[in-house]
Amino acid sequence: MRPCCVAHVASAHPLVPATSPTVDGARVRLRAVTAADAVALLEISVYDGVAARTESDAGAQIERIAGDQARGETVHWAIEEASTGMLVGTVGFYRGFAGGVGEVGYVLRPAHRKRGFMTEAVALAVAYGFDVLGLQAVVAHTDATNGASIAVLERCGFVPAGANGGQHTFRVDRPT
Ligand SMILES: CC(C)(COP(=O)(O)OP(=O)(O)OC[C@H]1O[C@@H](n2cnc3c(N)ncnc32)[C@H](O)[C@@H]1OP(=O)(O)O)[C@@H](O)C(=O)NCCC(=O)NCCS
Q: How far is the centre of ligand 1, averaged over its atoms, from the C-alpha of 150 (Å)?
Protein backbone atom coordinates (compact mmCIF):
# COMPACT_ATOMS: atom_id res chain seq x y z
CA MET A 1 0.00 0.00 0.00
CA ARG A 2 1.17 3.50 -0.79
CA PRO A 3 2.37 5.47 2.26
CA CYS A 4 -0.31 8.04 3.04
CA CYS A 5 2.13 10.94 2.87
CA VAL A 6 3.34 10.16 -0.65
CA ALA A 7 1.22 11.62 -3.42
CA HIS A 8 0.16 9.18 -6.10
CA VAL A 9 2.05 9.92 -9.31
CA ALA A 10 0.30 8.32 -12.24
CA SER A 11 2.25 7.24 -15.26
CA ALA A 12 0.89 8.24 -18.65
CA HIS A 13 0.78 5.87 -21.61
CA PRO A 14 1.49 7.31 -25.09
CA LEU A 15 -1.08 5.09 -26.83
CA VAL A 16 -4.06 6.03 -24.68
CA PRO A 17 -6.74 7.43 -27.04
CA ALA A 18 -8.41 10.77 -26.30
CA THR A 19 -11.77 9.05 -26.71
CA SER A 20 -12.22 5.42 -25.77
CA PRO A 21 -12.91 3.35 -28.87
CA THR A 22 -15.93 1.12 -29.24
CA VAL A 23 -15.06 -2.51 -28.57
CA ASP A 24 -17.66 -5.13 -29.46
CA GLY A 25 -18.08 -8.43 -27.68
CA ALA A 26 -20.76 -11.07 -27.99
CA ARG A 27 -23.09 -9.74 -25.29
CA VAL A 28 -21.57 -6.37 -24.35
CA ARG A 29 -20.22 -3.33 -26.13
CA LEU A 30 -17.61 -1.03 -24.60
CA ARG A 31 -17.94 2.61 -25.66
CA ALA A 32 -16.79 6.04 -24.54
CA VAL A 33 -18.55 7.56 -21.53
CA THR A 34 -20.27 10.88 -22.25
CA ALA A 35 -21.76 13.62 -20.08
CA ALA A 36 -25.20 12.25 -20.96
CA ASP A 37 -24.39 9.09 -18.97
CA ALA A 38 -24.34 10.93 -15.62
CA VAL A 39 -27.89 9.95 -14.64
CA ALA A 40 -27.41 6.27 -15.42
CA LEU A 41 -24.00 6.16 -13.76
CA LEU A 42 -24.97 8.03 -10.59
CA GLU A 43 -25.60 4.88 -8.55
CA ILE A 44 -22.12 3.51 -9.33
CA SER A 45 -20.04 6.69 -9.58
CA VAL A 46 -17.07 6.79 -7.21
CA TYR A 47 -13.84 8.78 -7.62
CA ASP A 48 -10.97 8.65 -5.15
CA GLY A 49 -13.24 6.74 -2.78
CA VAL A 50 -15.94 9.42 -2.81
CA ALA A 51 -19.37 8.35 -4.07
CA ALA A 52 -21.39 10.74 -6.21
CA ARG A 53 -24.62 11.81 -4.52
CA THR A 54 -26.17 13.90 -7.26
CA GLU A 55 -26.29 13.91 -11.03
CA SER A 56 -24.03 16.94 -10.89
CA ASP A 57 -21.49 14.97 -8.79
CA ALA A 58 -21.59 12.13 -11.31
CA GLY A 59 -21.09 14.59 -14.17
CA ALA A 60 -18.11 16.13 -12.38
CA GLN A 61 -16.60 12.69 -11.91
CA ILE A 62 -17.03 11.93 -15.62
CA GLU A 63 -15.17 15.17 -16.37
CA ARG A 64 -12.35 14.33 -13.94
CA ILE A 65 -11.92 10.89 -15.46
CA ALA A 66 -11.90 12.45 -18.95
CA GLY A 67 -9.11 14.73 -17.72
CA ASP A 68 -7.16 11.69 -16.49
CA GLN A 69 -7.65 10.09 -19.89
CA ALA A 70 -6.53 13.25 -21.71
CA ARG A 71 -3.28 12.96 -19.73
CA GLY A 72 -2.89 9.34 -20.87
CA GLU A 73 -3.43 7.88 -17.40
CA THR A 74 -6.83 6.23 -17.89
CA VAL A 75 -9.01 4.45 -20.42
CA HIS A 76 -12.64 4.60 -19.30
CA TRP A 77 -15.50 2.74 -20.97
CA ALA A 78 -19.23 2.49 -20.50
CA ILE A 79 -20.50 -1.08 -20.80
CA GLU A 80 -23.68 -1.53 -22.80
CA GLU A 81 -25.74 -4.67 -23.11
CA ALA A 82 -25.25 -5.29 -26.83
CA SER A 83 -28.81 -6.43 -27.52
CA THR A 84 -30.53 -3.43 -25.89
CA GLY A 85 -27.98 -0.60 -25.68
CA MET A 86 -28.69 -0.39 -21.93
CA LEU A 87 -25.81 1.12 -19.94
CA VAL A 88 -25.01 -1.59 -17.39
CA GLY A 89 -21.68 -0.50 -15.89
CA THR A 90 -18.18 0.79 -16.42
CA VAL A 91 -14.76 -0.76 -16.90
CA GLY A 92 -11.33 0.61 -17.65
CA PHE A 93 -7.74 1.19 -16.75
CA TYR A 94 -7.16 3.68 -13.97
CA ARG A 95 -4.23 5.14 -12.01
CA GLY A 96 -1.68 5.07 -14.81
CA PHE A 97 0.49 2.53 -16.56
CA ALA A 98 3.75 2.53 -14.62
CA GLY A 99 6.14 -0.14 -15.87
CA GLY A 100 3.75 -1.15 -18.66
CA VAL A 101 1.26 -2.49 -16.12
CA GLY A 102 -2.39 -1.41 -16.26
CA GLU A 103 -4.80 -1.51 -13.32
CA VAL A 104 -8.28 -2.60 -14.29
CA GLY A 105 -11.32 -1.36 -12.38
CA TYR A 106 -14.98 -2.23 -12.93
CA VAL A 107 -18.47 -1.85 -11.55
CA LEU A 108 -21.92 -2.97 -12.65
CA ARG A 109 -25.21 -1.30 -11.86
CA PRO A 110 -26.83 -3.58 -9.27
CA ALA A 111 -29.77 -4.53 -11.49
CA HIS A 112 -27.40 -5.95 -14.11
CA ARG A 113 -25.24 -8.24 -11.99
CA LYS A 114 -25.03 -12.03 -12.22
CA ARG A 115 -25.57 -12.15 -15.96
CA GLY A 116 -21.97 -12.51 -17.10
CA PHE A 117 -21.61 -8.96 -18.44
CA MET A 118 -18.56 -8.04 -16.40
CA THR A 119 -16.59 -11.17 -17.12
CA GLU A 120 -16.90 -10.37 -20.82
CA ALA A 121 -16.20 -6.66 -20.32
CA VAL A 122 -13.03 -7.26 -18.29
CA ALA A 123 -11.82 -9.80 -20.85
CA LEU A 124 -12.35 -7.23 -23.64
CA ALA A 125 -10.54 -4.51 -21.67
CA VAL A 126 -7.60 -6.81 -20.87
CA ALA A 127 -7.33 -7.85 -24.55
CA TYR A 128 -7.31 -4.15 -25.50
CA GLY A 129 -4.57 -3.56 -22.95
CA PHE A 130 -2.37 -6.25 -24.45
CA ASP A 131 -3.23 -5.86 -28.14
CA VAL A 132 -3.54 -2.07 -28.49
CA LEU A 133 -1.64 -0.59 -25.55
CA GLY A 134 1.02 -3.32 -25.56
CA LEU A 135 0.87 -3.75 -21.79
CA GLN A 136 3.10 -6.29 -20.08
CA ALA A 137 0.52 -7.16 -17.44
CA VAL A 138 -2.80 -6.11 -15.96
CA VAL A 139 -3.46 -6.08 -12.22
CA ALA A 140 -6.56 -5.62 -10.10
CA HIS A 141 -6.87 -4.84 -6.40
CA THR A 142 -9.92 -6.19 -4.68
CA ASP A 143 -11.16 -6.75 -1.17
CA ALA A 144 -10.55 -10.30 0.02
CA THR A 145 -14.24 -10.59 0.87
CA ASN A 146 -15.39 -9.52 -2.60
CA GLY A 147 -16.08 -12.98 -3.97
CA ALA A 148 -17.98 -11.74 -7.03
CA SER A 149 -15.04 -9.57 -8.08
CA ILE A 150 -12.51 -12.35 -7.48
CA ALA A 151 -14.65 -14.73 -9.55
CA VAL A 152 -14.65 -12.24 -12.46
CA LEU A 153 -10.86 -11.99 -12.29
CA GLU A 154 -10.33 -15.75 -12.10
CA ARG A 155 -12.63 -16.30 -15.08
CA CYS A 156 -10.48 -13.78 -16.99
CA GLY A 157 -7.23 -15.61 -16.21
CA PHE A 158 -5.96 -13.50 -13.31
CA VAL A 159 -4.04 -15.24 -10.55
CA PRO A 160 -3.29 -14.09 -6.97
CA ALA A 161 -0.23 -11.83 -6.81
CA GLY A 162 -0.02 -10.65 -3.23
CA ALA A 163 -2.04 -9.24 -0.40
CA ASN A 164 -1.91 -6.26 1.88
CA GLY A 165 -4.24 -6.67 4.80
CA GLY A 166 -7.71 -7.28 3.40
CA GLN A 167 -6.74 -6.00 -0.04
CA HIS A 168 -5.71 -8.70 -2.52
CA THR A 169 -3.89 -8.15 -5.80
CA PHE A 170 -4.56 -10.26 -8.89
CA ARG A 171 -2.51 -10.22 -12.07
CA VAL A 172 -2.55 -11.53 -15.61
CA ASP A 173 0.60 -11.36 -17.72
CA ARG A 174 0.77 -10.62 -21.41
CA PRO A 175 0.41 -13.89 -23.33
CA THR A 176 3.71 -15.05 -24.80
C1 LIG B 1 -17.70 -7.21 -9.04
C2 LIG B 1 -18.93 -7.23 -9.92
C3 LIG B 1 -18.69 -6.43 -11.20
C4 LIG B 1 -19.22 -8.69 -10.30
O5 LIG B 1 -20.46 -8.74 -10.97
P6 LIG B 1 -21.06 -10.14 -11.47
O7 LIG B 1 -22.43 -9.86 -11.91
O8 LIG B 1 -20.86 -11.18 -10.41
O9 LIG B 1 -20.12 -10.53 -12.68
P10 LIG B 1 -20.56 -10.95 -14.14
O11 LIG B 1 -21.31 -9.86 -14.80
O12 LIG B 1 -19.35 -11.42 -14.84
O13 LIG B 1 -21.57 -12.15 -13.89
C14 LIG B 1 -21.06 -13.40 -13.49
C15 LIG B 1 -22.16 -14.19 -12.89
O16 LIG B 1 -23.26 -14.26 -13.79
C17 LIG B 1 -23.65 -15.62 -13.96
N18 LIG B 1 -24.28 -15.73 -15.30
C19 LIG B 1 -25.62 -15.77 -15.48
N20 LIG B 1 -25.88 -15.81 -16.81
C21 LIG B 1 -24.70 -15.81 -17.45
C22 LIG B 1 -24.33 -15.87 -18.83
N23 LIG B 1 -25.26 -15.91 -19.79
N24 LIG B 1 -23.03 -15.83 -19.14
C25 LIG B 1 -22.10 -15.79 -18.19
N26 LIG B 1 -22.38 -15.74 -16.85
C27 LIG B 1 -23.68 -15.75 -16.50
C28 LIG B 1 -22.37 -16.38 -13.72
O29 LIG B 1 -22.60 -17.72 -13.37
C30 LIG B 1 -21.77 -15.61 -12.59
O31 LIG B 1 -22.36 -15.92 -11.35
P32 LIG B 1 -21.52 -16.67 -10.21
O33 LIG B 1 -20.29 -15.82 -9.93
O34 LIG B 1 -22.46 -16.70 -9.07
O35 LIG B 1 -21.17 -17.99 -10.78
C36 LIG B 1 -20.17 -6.65 -9.18
O37 LIG B 1 -20.42 -7.42 -8.03
C38 LIG B 1 -19.98 -5.20 -8.78
O39 LIG B 1 -20.18 -4.29 -9.59
N40 LIG B 1 -19.59 -4.96 -7.53
C41 LIG B 1 -19.33 -3.62 -7.02
C42 LIG B 1 -18.06 -3.05 -7.61
C43 LIG B 1 -16.84 -3.91 -7.33
O44 LIG B 1 -16.75 -4.59 -6.33
N45 LIG B 1 -15.89 -3.83 -8.28
C46 LIG B 1 -14.62 -4.54 -8.18
C47 LIG B 1 -13.63 -3.70 -7.45
S48 LIG B 1 -12.00 -4.30 -7.81
A: 9
Cross-strand partners of 88: none
CA of 112 to the centre of ligand 1 (A): 9
The per-residue pLDDT for range 124-154, each reduced to its tens digit, is 999 999 999 999 999 999 999 999 999 999 9
Query: Which pLDDT score is estimated for 9?
Result: 53
Cβ atoms within 10 Å, residue 146: 14
CA angle 61, 96, 110 (to 5 degrees): 45
- The CA distance from 95 to 36, in Å, is 24
Q: Ligand 1 pocket by C-beta < 6 Å: which residues?
A: 105-108, 113-119, 140, 142, 146, 148-149, 151-152
CA-to-CA dists, residue 84 to 27, 43, 111, 148, 160, angstroms = 10, 20, 14, 24, 35
Pocket test for ligand 1, best of 93, 112, 114 (most atoms within 8 A of CB): 114
Ligand 1: distance of its center to the CA of 119 in Å? 7
Per the rule left: phi > 0, alpha: psi between -120 and 50, beta: everything else, 72 is left
Domains of the chain: 23-173 (3.40.630.30)
